[in-house]
Specification:
Blueprint: H1 5-21, E1 24-29, H2 35-47, E2 51-54, H3 57-66, E3 82-87, H4 93-104, E4 109-115, E5 120-121, H5 123-130, H6 135-172
Antiparallel strand pairs: 1-3, 1-4, 2-3, 4-5
């Protein structure tokens, strides 16, 4: 069934605004993926704060032309049946969600990515991003590194204090 001109215009406007606010957008081929698998992907993506959109590439190109920063973006990689994963909160989450899902579903394949400035990322770059730890995990690791000296000093002082108390207790007995 053909989409009306008004509906196409609404889709382009919606995608353009989503593209403008997204920190990262990842495109993936989904040819051969079942509807049930795509619904499962959308559910998992929502849990990570990622939105999945399926829209014709011609409309995506039009939306990019209307989005500040994306006017000169090379769209040569946008060929075939593609879905677009976007996140307004985390730069790495769309790549991680698609990559993790693609491990169990070989019909899903990363194609490219776009950062918030309109720069295109090749497939290898997107897969490298997907292998990074999540933002929350990086924050936790940084805090653990910052607290490590404090824990070391506390443990050293605690050990010496216990030895002193043991010595005093032995002398008193």
């Amino acid at each position: 069934m053909a989409i009306s001109r008004d509906k196409k215009h609404a889709l382009v406007t919606d995608f353009s605004s989503a593209l403008g606010t997204a920190k990262m957008t990842v495109a993936a081929k989904y040819d051969g993926t079942s509807v049930a698998d795509l619904q499962n992907l959308r559910r998992k993506a929502r849990e990570q704060g990622v939105t999945i959109k399926v829209i014709k590439n011609r409309l995506v190109r039009t939306a990019m032309q209307q989005t500040k920063g994306f006017e000169k973006t090379d769209t040569a990689l946008l060929v075939g049946q593609l879905l677009y994963a976007m996140s307004t909160e985390d730069e790495v989450a769309p790549a991680q969600v698609i990559n993790a899902f693609a491990k169990d579903h070989p019909t899903l394949d990363l194609v490219a990515g776009f950062d918030n400035s309109g720069a295109i990322l090749e497939t290898a770059d997107v897969k490298a991003l997907a292998s990074l730890p999540s933002k929350n995990q990086l924050i936790a690791e940084t805090i653990a590194q910052l607290l490590s000296p404090v824990h070391d000093v506390t443990n050293a002082l605690s050990g010496n204090l216990h030895a002193l108390l043991d010595g005093v207790e032995a002398k008193a007995a």
